[in-house]
Amino acid sequence: SPKPGPYVKEMNDAATFYTNRVLKDYKHSDARHVDWVKSYLNIWSELQAYIKEHHTTGLTWSKTGPVASPMSMRSVLTSGSCLSPPPPPPPPGPPPIFDTETVKDEGTAARSALFAQLNQGEAITKGLRHVSDDQKTHKNPSLRAQCPSVRSPTKSHTPSPTSPKNSPQQSHAPVLELEGKKWRVEYQEDKNDLVINNTELKQVAYIFKCNKSTLQIKGKINSITIDNCKKFGLVFDNVVGIVEVINSSNIQIQVMGKVPTISINKTEGCHIYLSEESLDCEIVSAKSSEMNILIPQDGDYKEFPVPEQFKTAWDGSKLVTEPAEIVG
Fold it and tell me: Which end of the chain has the least Cβ crowding within 10 Å, N or C?
């Protein structure tokens, strides 16, 4: 079994991969999640430092410490039973008093008055005043000019939603820095000379909202995530985990070394250039279109499209799904 120090370090690297997704979703919306990620990763770092100082090869028990006797253990177990029980809760308060008689009398009087008016029959109209033609707005144009227009109660007059004015987009400062074990590449515009050197196996790269730019990552890195980018190019040497493309468009990726998995989600337009060493790479795609894999052949690249349309049929025992051939 591995020693505790290296094992905790591996768990820290694994946790970093998943906490990056939390940062991706809440980095600009909720700082509590960002603080939680930092605190959580700090637990592994502090635990690794503690192990290096006190338990390098595992748990060590003191050879010179006192030996617990059976009487001391019995006293510890029985001490808990001597505690007095907590006091009982206070009795419930008196029920609320409602003056139901007053409410009942008022309701009875109102109903009696209503029925008394209804029982008048035709005599109920005797109290109405006659309106002459000169007092009717539909027969007197001068009254219509004086009275404000009244909206019909049957029609909804909710103001129609107007198209919002194109507010100026908030500009962010471009970022290219190493934060802990994560390379942050954010808000790069029209930059084709971005380079990351001196990478380590435990590091990850997170690329966010970069447009019309190209990034080269040299060395070996744990994972790479491309999120909300447009017309972005990526060239890297080796990745031991996964390369993930999310919510992007017009992405070009070139693999110089090896990568086990490339994931494409909610992306329109993605071209992947594989190397001779990475031909066994697995491509996982969902809700994406215009995906092409370029394979090196005879000193050039041959393009193979990734299927976007599938057909599913029941074979008697299970569902069978296969790419659908488009008949032109």
Answer: C
Closest Cα to residue 105, out of 113, 115, 116, 117? 113
CATH of domain 175-323: 2.160.20.70
User: What is the C-alpha to C-alpha distance for residues 282 and 301, in angstroms, rounded to an integer?
Assistant: 18
How would you write 105-168 as a 3-class SS string?
Answer: HHHHHHHHHHHHHHCCHHHHHHHCCCCCHHHCCCCCHHHHHHCCCCCCCCCCCCCCCCCCCCCC
Residue 120 gets the label, from left (phi > 0), alpha (psi -120 to 50) or beta, of alpha
Q: Which residues contact 222 (CB under 8 A, 6 or more apart)?
A: 13, 16, 17, 201, 202, 203, 204, 239, 240, 241
Q: Considering the entire predicted model, what is its pTM?
A: 0.50
Using pLDDT thresholds of 50, 70 and 90, give the confidence band for residue 328.
very low
Spell out the residues 6+ positions from residue 47 whose beta carbon is closer than 8 angstroms to its own. 8
For residue 12 the two structure tokens come to 């820290």
Task: Tell me which amino acid residue 273 is.
Answer: Y
Alpha carbon 110 to its chain centroid, in Å, reads 57
pLDDT digits (tens, 9 = 90+) for 226-238: 999 999 999 999 9
What is the C-alpha to C-alpha distance for residues 184 and 298, in angstroms, rounded to an integer?
37
Map out the domains of the chain as residue ranges: 4-54, 175-323
